[in-house]
Design a protein that fits this description.
The complex is a heterodimer of chains A (474) and B (459).
Chain A (H helix, E strand, L loop, with lengths): L1 H14 L1 H44 L6 H7 L1 E4 L19 E4 L26 H17 L4 H6 L1 H7 L4 H32 L9 H29 L3 H30 L5 H12 L11 H14 L11 H37 L5 H13 L3 H29 L11 H6 L10 H37 L1
Antiparallel strand pairs in A: 1-2
Helix pairs in contact in A: 1-7, 2-4, 2-7, 3-14, 4-8, 4-9, 7-8, 7-16, 8-9, 8-13, 8-16, 9-12, 10-12, 12-13, 12-14, 13-16
Chain B lengths: L2 H11 L1 H52 L4 H5 L3 E4 L19 E4 L17 H6 L4 H17 L4 H6 L1 H7 L4 H31 L5 H26 L4 H30 L5 H17 L1 H11 L12 H37 L4 H13 L3 H27 L22 H30 L5 H4 L1
Antiparallel strand pairs in B: 1-2
The chains are: A mainly alpha (474), B mainly alpha (459).
Chain lengths: 474, 459
């Protein structure tokens, strides 16, 4: 019986003008957005590869100089493009893609792509993820609002039920019919997209296939929830008009109102740290340690006395190594701890905001889906933190190599000490290791849990709505 | 009782209508409160920067009154170039959270790439956008309005009361026209009131830009009323009318703007920032290596600036190197500016593809948070960098100290606002364009509802 109902609903939906027009528009938008995002991803990847190569060449060909001067010359770390960014660009346009690594300072990533764009960005970006998050639910609303309410208005629902059709089977059949119609529309696109994406970066990320499968699962839960709610509303409303108004209201709340409202309220509850205070706190803490370039610094004077006492010498020139190199090493170690502490607190705060926003997904499932989608696509805040932290570790290693060279190989008091390409080559290029699956899972688990709860809850409600329909005949 | 009053009375009897209006008022209030908070934060940041900069400048002037100073001391942490917070920022956050509103100009770092420091912000929040008044007016206002007016006659047609009403001698055009006005007026009045209220609270007062903003919002509301009328004229059921109105909202507010964004970014792709960074380092590495040659060439070209004995120190070399980097990088920076300007031109040209784009651009422009004001700031900062260079560079090269006579010539930045006629021209044309779009929607309605054809409305 369920199959018969489902096939009839599928046939009706397929013939429906709303499905034909809406579905065609949706398919066109998905293909256009997918192709454009693919092209953009490839272009960005090529640009970053070229920049990485050019910067490496600049580093190797910087000529002979003091190893600490090379630390000031610095180098850049460029963020690799995530293969799944072609599906969901996430926060990528709003975070920098390169960071300057230099002596003494931890720099933030710079050049937000959104700064090189017009005001139009505020309307959102046409991506496959946006289409699936916002437009497919709208199509579901338009297809499902009359599934049962229209039958009720026409009087055919009472006839069906009085013939002994089980309301639960009827509702499930209607659900499956619309779901099959949508599946016929979307599954081929999703299959082609997943196949293309899985071939782009498997070597770079061993979890790529798993990420894609979880993405399909997350979107399946979300769209399934929307369809179940739409059919349930249709089962409960007296008129198609009432069902449509209610469903459009729910859609508008979920897709338009909730995202901005949630992020704004979260900002009130968990405020973002102020840049001036952040910079001032770092500057204050840095003053508590050695300043490698200020001989009047009291911490440096104390460190000098301690080092001399440890080696039983009277003058730094008598030490068996270059004292300036040791000072640079110590200063770098201290400052990187200070930066590490403050940056970790800032990242924790921002991630706490994102977690809170995800939890508001309990009221609007799109918020949970967005978190899951960005995390699984590797374009969320935590992925950016992963890059920022990895580049900082690279900076610390880079400074350690240079300062140790100064300490071990420069004679005390030799201000004309120079090194060249042999040392520059000792420093390997920056490579960002893929994020461990456990870390990705931590970012995504709560969101998937919320989506799962929505899915289960919506089906329970659908079942209860079907049971309620029995009373109509009675 | 007039038809208008009757429609109003009938509408206010529905609880759902009251709930919708209350929700809209709450959204407007929240949008205004958020905008005020953002404007206050911007004002405080600007005040702190101005106080710090004026205190430092006063110290420099006082010191110069007493003695000569090394120019490096006058430079401090850089000459401040500040974009003052706009007076009507409460209307629209625009690009204010993305674009830097100040820069510190330091002579020996004028060629460093601007890092666009905008304060700490959660990128997820930047992606989502703020819940400001412009969001309520552009995104939510039409949704709420359509919820009130989507069923102008379709429901009556289904129930048969439309035939009854028309048989009493009321013309179809009059019936629907009065209905759409009666049902649309309360929400539109709230939206207009919110703009005026925000202007008063935000300190802008009832200035001309505020009245233009209300005009834009009114035109935008009229466009959506026309859409509702159109959907009612050409659909048979209330559900179909709602579907058409909802689809129109999605197409005009979501699909067309995102498509236009794709078009502008594809037609005028920005050069790569990653490559810019790498090229800058290549140019600076090359210039550093040739610094001796560069400074000698410089003094050959500018013998009047050569220091005694032609012996350049580190800073003088740095300035020569910087000039060389500037020469190498200027075409690349110009390419960024040109591409962005071209993108904006495409947006201006195609903004009437969707009234949401035209209205949002106009509101951001009036609020002072749009492209053009920031563009003016960037251009003026570039000119100010040149002024700083021209003032200090000869002193550094000739190793001349700053003296009391230099006080009036010390470079300082004062932002010159764009000509108000230009802003008014852009925003009034946006308003006129949105009204024209509304009329375009009304034309087929007029044909449908004309005296001879009104029977089609009932059938």
């Amino acid at each position: 019986m369920i199959l018969t109902i489902a096939l009839k609903e599928l046939r009706d939906t397929w013939r429906d003008g709303r499905f034909r027009i809406g579905g065609t528009l949706l398919v066109v938008l998905l293909i256009v957005s997918g192709v454009l995002a693919w092209q953009q991803n490839e272009r960005t990847r090529a640009e970053r590869d070229a920049a990485t190569e050019l910067d490496r060449r600049n580093w190797l060909e910087q000529g002979e100089k003091n190893s600490h001067s090379a630390g000031h010359y610095g180098l850049y770390a460029f963020k690799p493009t995530a293969p799944l960014a072609a599906f969901d660009r996430g926060v990528e346009p709003y975070v920098g893609s390169s960071v300057f690594l230099e002596a003494h300072r931890r720099n933030a990533t710079s050049f937000l792509p959104a700064q090189d764009a017009t005001n139009m960005r505020r309307f959102g970006e046409l991506t496959a993820s946006l289409s699936l998050q916002i437009l497919v639910p709208l199509l579901i609303v338009l297809l499902a609002f009359g599934a049962l309410a229209a039958e009720r208005e026409r009087g055919t629902l009472r006839q069906l039920l009085s013939l002994g059709v089980d309301p639960v089977q009827l509702v499930v059949g209607k659900f499956l019919g619309i779901a099959l119609a949508l599946a016929l529309l979307l599954v081929p696109l999703i299959a082609v997209g997943a196949w293309l994406l899985s071939g782009t970066g498997e070597a770079g990320d061993p979890n790529l296939t798993r990420r894609i499968l979880f993405l399909i699962g997350a979107y399946g839960l979300y769209l399934g929830t929307f369809l179940a709610i739409a059919v349930a509303v249709s089962a409960r409303c007296r008129t198609g008009r009432g069902a449509l108004a209610l469903l459009l209201g729910l859609w508008a709340f979920n897709c338009v109102l909730a995202p901005r409202l949630a992020t704004d309220l979260v900002e009130q509850w968990v405020p973002t740290p102020q840049l001036a205070e952040f910079d001032a706190a770092i500057a204050a803490d840095l003053k508590k340690g050695i300043d490698g370039h200020d001989s009047r610094d009291v911490h440096l004077q104390k460190f000098t006395q301690e080092t001399l006492a440890k080696h039983g010498k009277q003058n730094v020139m008598e030490l068996p190594f270059n004292f300036n190199g040791l000072v640079m090493l110590e200063s770098e170690k201290f400052s990187s701890e200070v930066y590490g502490h403050h940056y970790a607190r800032m990242w924790d705060q921002l991630e706490a905001q994102d977690r809170a926003t995800t939890l508001t997904g309990a009221l609007a499932p799109m918020l949970a889906l967005r978190t899951a989608s960005m995390a699984l696509s590797g374009t969320d805040l935590s992925q950016h933190r992963h890059f920022a932290d990895a580049s900082e570790r690279h900076r610390m290693e880079f400074m350690r190599v240079l300062n140790e060279d100064l300490m071990k190989n420069a004679r005390p008091g030799d201000h004309g000490y120079r090194v060249g390409r042999t040392l520059w080559e000792q420093l390997p290029p920056f490579v960002l290791a893929p994020r461990e699956w456990d870390a990705v899972w931590t970012s995504v688990a709560a969101a998937l849990g919320i989506l799962g709860a929505w899915f289960a809850g919506s089906f329970l409600w659908l079942y209860m709505s079907a049971r309620r329909m029995r009373l109509e005949v009675a | 009782m007039s038809l208008f009053q009757l429609e109003l009375r009938l509408m206010f009897r529905e609880r759902a209508v009251l709930a919708l209006l209350a929700l809209f008022v709450l959204s407007l209030g929240y949008g205004i409160a958020n905008g005020l908070e953002l404007a206050e934060r911007q004002r405080k940041e600007a005040d702190a920067l101005i106080i710090e900069s004026s205190q430092f400048n006063k110290q420099v002037r006082d010191a110069l009154e007493r003695q000569a100073l090394d120019p490096r001391q006058a430079m401090g942490s850089g000459h401040l170039a500040l974009l003052p917070p706009p007076g009507f920022a409460v209307l629209s956050g625009g690009q204010a959270d993305l674009l830097p509103s100040h820069e510190r100009i330091i002579l020996w770092r004028t060629e460093d790439p601007s890092e666009g420091k905008i304060g700490l912000a959660n990128p997820t929040q930047l992606l989502t956008g703020r819940f400001d008044l412009a969001f309520v007016l552009i995104w939510l206002f039409p949704l709420f309005l359509l919820a009130l007016i989507y069923d102008l006659c379709a429901g009556d047609r289904e129930s048969g009361t439309l035939r009854l009403a028309l048989s009493r001698g009321i013309g179809a055009w009059k019936l629907l026209g009065v209905r759409v006005l009666a049902r649309g007026t309360p929400m539109t009045a709230l939206a207009l009131g919110a703009v005026l209220f925000a202007a008063l609270l935000g300190g802008e007062g009832l200035s001309l830009p505020v009245w233009i903003a209300t005009g834009v919002v009114l035109a935008y509301g009229l466009f959506w009323c026309a859409v509702a009328l159109l959907s009612n004229c050409f659909t048979r059921t209330a559900a179909a009318a709602a579907t058409v109105a909802g689809a129109a909202w999605v197409i005009f507010v979501m699909v067309i703007p995102t498509l236009l964004n794709v078009v502008v970014e594809s037609a005028h792709p920005m050069p790569s920032r990653a490559e810019l960074v790498a090229k800058l380092r290549e140019a600076s590495g090359d210039a550093e290596r040739r610094s001796n040659e560069l400074i000698n060439t410089f003094y050959k070209d500018h013998p009047e600036l050569a220091p005694p004995g032609m012996q350049a120190d580190m800073l003088q070399r740095r300035l020569a190197v910087q000039e060389e980097i500037g020469r190498a990088m200027d075409p690349i920076y110009k390419e960024f500016d040109t591409e962005l300007a071209d993108q904006q031109q495409v947006v201006e040209r195609w903004r009437f593809a969707s009234p949401a784009i035209a209205a949002y651009e106009a509101l951001s422009d009036l609020a002072g948070t749009g492209y053009w004001r920031h563009r003016a700031f960037r251009d003026q900062v570039a000119a100010f960098k040149d002024a700083v260079f021209e003032f200090y560079s000869p002193k550094f090269h000739k190793r001349q100290p700053l003296v009391k006579a230099d006080i009036p010539m010390l470079p300082s930045f004062a932002f010159r606002e764009e000509e108000s006629a230009a802003v008014q021209g852009r925003t009034l044309s946006a308003m006129a364009g949105i009204l024209a779009l509304a009329l375009l929607c009304l034309a087929p309605c007029a044909l449908r509802l004309s005296r001879g054809a009104s029977g089609k409305l009932v059938s």
